[in-house]
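Side project, low priority. Logging it here so it doesn't get lost.
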Amino acid sequence: MRPSHTYFSTSQTAQMLGLSVGTIQRMVATGVLQAYTTQGGHRRILASSVRDYCQAKGVPMSDFLPVSAGLCVVHDASMPTPVQQALGQMGHVLLVSHPLELAGLREDCAAFFMDAHVGWLDWPDLRRPMGLAPDARFIVYNSADLSPEQHQAVALHAQLWPGDISADLVAGFLLGIRGWQPPLAADTSHHH
């Protein structure tokens, strides 16, 4: 684990410790691991709590590979619960519904899926997420709901997806992320 990580998702913690998500949830419920719950209802387990658990159990920290939220999904309260649950079970997906949840994000986050309905993302230049992960790819979903002016401005920084997010969309992106090439900034004529 790298010190820049202040918390982990339930699935990331389960992956690091070689335990099931259910076991991690029980460990949080019984106080073995310290966590907080986001506005979206997701547990975020404090990295210090995971370190303390490993030290108490004699598990060397060097045994863990750095776990990254390879993909960050910024959403608002309207995201359907089944979609949140499906995305929450994906190992390298971090769900964010509040700006403070971006605080522990690693700089090597590969991509951001951002809901066009989220007002705190500093539209249209995406200053906040681009400042956190300058090398990430940016995908704005629900982009059909942007005004024509917002659409044009956001297209300079992000790939646009007119519809809502789904677990299949994210899974497909994760599968193809190594082969994906960002569009040229000057080419805004083709948007998906």
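Brief comment: Strands lie at 7-9, 35-37, 43-46, 71-74, 93-96, 111-115, 137-141, 159-161.
Revisit when time allows.
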